[in-house]
Amino acid sequence: MLDVKVIRQNFPIYEHNKDLVYLDTGASSLKPKAVIDQVDHYYSNLGVNVHRGVYGLSYEATDLYEEARTTVAKFINANFDEVVFTRGTTASLNMVAQSYLSVLKEGDEIITSELEHHSSMLPWLNVSKKTNAKLNYVKLNDEGRITVEAFKDVLTTNTKVVALTYVSNVMGYITPIEEIIKLAHEVGAVVIVDAAQAAPHMPINVKSLDCDYLAFSGHKILGPTGIGVLYGKKHLLDQMEPSEYGGDMVDFVVKDNAKWKDTPYKFEAGTPIISGAIGLSSAIKYLMSIGFEAIEAHTKELHRYTLEKLKDIKGIEVYNSKSDTGIITFNIIGVHPHDAASIFDKNKVCIRAGHHCAQLITKWLGQIATLRATLYIYNNYEDCDRFIDSVKETIDFFNQF
Ligand SMILES: Cc1ncc(COP(=O)(O)O)c(C=O)c1O
């Protein structure tokens, strides 16, 4: 197990919120001091633009910004010029989908699933409506997982795009994405991987996955909000049109023409998210100093511990007891999740209530909303106990009525 006492010393939020039980990392992670300090360093000591200034401060800011790209590239085993900084997973996935508006046509097929976060399926619903390409959904198995077998059932020679999540934000399942990518490539389809929930939990290697595009957000891996990553294979990024035009993305401009810079810069029009990228770099370094093996062992143990206790409680329904990551999605029978969440909130236990921007899987579960607790590196057994106490208190409270 990780030494949570030591880890919490790195997270100033615990100093300011003594009783905090934070179980909403699925929505956004807490931020360590290393990240806050690095963002502060940029604003306190540099605070200037990148790529433009012909003076020391700007060179230094540019170095930090581009070093961040190197850190991200190493983190996912990509090449430097395959890493585009964006606002987040949503922006990255939309950017890719937009670029297929001019590529797809009637007769083409797109595969997605009911397990997707809205950011992974809505951009393709839009593309499908505008191009008349057919949107197919992988049938989930009884547990709600995407399986290779079910994927084969919807894969056809007309499949041009596969957009799937690597780890579900509701069920915590890991998709067998590597095999799916191999099969998709056999019919010439590109695969876009939503790695927003995978990046905090497991090593990502875009080369061994052989995915065509992959997206994740900084704020879910201990980094700042407002920064994300789009990975794309170099030849695909070369073909992809920018979705925004403006400063710094162009080599030369004449009245009736312009030549874009090479990747990744042609996708980063305007002043980029400098502090975000620099902060993200620190977050990745911090995460790597802990290591994914230790992160996985820690969250799995807390998950086991919590589930064991939940098992003994009558009046709840857990929808993903076989979750592969530290996500527990459940309901207290007869109690609306938002009503339940207010009792957790009173006890300073932060969990999520709602459809988690994934209405299709929530409907698949036969629910209108669920409660979700995510376990991560700064959680300990005491957090799990206080979570369990809140579950019991909620049941007792609503039983009165
Ligand atoms: C699986 C998944 N995909 C995409 C997103 C969207 O991420 P962002 O809001 O950072 O763009 C989320 C966020 O909850 C997510 O969990």
TrEMBL record:
Domain Aminotransferase class V: 21-387
Family: Belongs to the class-V pyridoxal-phosphate-dependent aminotransferase family. Csd subfamily.
UniProt xrefs under InterPro entries: Aminotrans_V_dom, Aminotrans_V_PyrdxlP_BS, Cys_dSase_SufS, Cysteine_dSase, PyrdxlP-dep_Trfase, PyrdxlP-dep_Trfase_major, PyrdxlP-dep_Trfase_small
PROSITE patterns linked to this entry: AA_TRANSFER_CLASS_5
Protein name (record): Cysteine desulfurase
PANTHER family: CYSTEINE DESULFURASE (PTHR43586), CYSTEINE DESULFURASE 1, CHLOROPLASTIC (PTHR43586:SF8)
Residues of the signal peptide: none
Gene Ontology terms: biological process: cysteine metabolic process
UniProt keyword Transferase present: yes
Known catalytic reactions: (sulfur carrier)-H + L-cysteine = (sulfur carrier)-SH + L-alanine
Origin: domain of life: Bacteria
Keywords (A to Z) from UniProt: Pyridoxal phosphate, Transferase
Cofactor(s) needed for function: pyridoxal 5'-phosphate
EC number: 2.8.1.7
